[in-house]
Amino acid sequence: MSRVAIVTGGTRGIGRAICERLRDERGFTVVANYAGNDDAARKFTDETGIPTIKFDVGDYDAVQDACQKVAGEHGLVDVVVNNAGITRDGTLLKMSYEDWDAVMRTNLGGCFNMAKATFAGMKERGWGRIVNIGSINGQAGQYGQVNYAAAKSGIHGFTKALAQEGARFGITVNAIAPGYIDTDMVAAVPEPVLEKIVAKIPVGRLGKASEIARGVSFLCSEHAEFVTGSTMSINGGQHMY
Ligand code: CAA
């Protein structure tokens, strides 16, 4: 029986690349979560054959229900990739409480909710993989992103703490910190601002979603048994940490 993986925010951008690679390279049964964009989800399934499940990762009860549903339909969840993330950029003076809360709830709360729904099962079976998608901006900070940087930085702390709890049960917990990747999220950054950011990337370009997916696939593999609590930076040299 193949391992069962859920990738949150899995129908577009980095998440989509992760879904395809985990299926093609690792042979996992993959289910992609998404929150709202039904058209993108349909297109994703049409093109990849990978099923989707709609729920809000920030909603604790919805996550519990969804993970049970996936277990019933595909088997107990062995691998979780916490990739779902949103931005609500703005300087502190312009940022509303709602913008703060939505980002914390989705980006960081989602990791807690998904781990709560799946960790006990992984422990019982003596094997599990959790990969959390952090960000260069959680490591280095970013003007206009106190919410996003705090949530992504929180993901890195969450990863190190949960890795210590999972180690004796065969569960590894790692993070990837992507730099600026060629996705819709980065395309939303105003052109002149993005130009300045790209100018600071030593490799001289945006990253590709597939370059993040390769890292996730390695961390989920049998070759990464001894890798836990780590953060893999994939950022073209923009921040060396
Ligand atoms: N450092 C210092 N000052 C800066 C600055 C920086 N990095 N960026 C902008 N400023 C300054 C500007 O020069 C400007 O100063 P003046 O008024 O003196 O000219 C002032 O701050 C206001 O800047 P803006 O005109 O840009 O202000 P705004 O309110 O219109 O927009 C913003 C603010 C929304 C934060 C906008 O600058 C922005 O979108 N920045 C990009 C944020 C970003 O990188 N987001 C990443 C999204 S992708 C992602 O998050 C994925 C990932 O994990 C990497």
TrEMBL record:
Molecular functions (GO terms): acetoacetyl-CoA reductase activity
Entry-linked Pfam families: adh_short_C2
InterPro entries: Acetoacetyl-CoA_reductase, KR_dom, NAD(P)-bd_dom_sf, Sc_DH/Rdtase_CS, SDR, SDR_fam
EC number: 1.1.1.36
Enzymatic class: oxidoreductase
Source organism, top-level taxon: Bacteria
Ranges for domain Ketoreductase: 3-179
Tagged with keyword Ribonucleoprotein: no
UniProt entry keywords in alphabetical sequence: Oxidoreductase
GO CC annotation: cytoplasm
Single GO biological process annotation from the record: monocarboxylic acid metabolic process
UniProt family annotation: Belongs to the short-chain dehydrogenases/reductases (SDR) family.
NCBIfam families, sorted: AcAcCoA_reduct (TIGR01829), PRK12824.1 (NF009464), PRK12826.1-2 (NF009466)
UniProt protein name: Acetoacetyl-CoA reductase
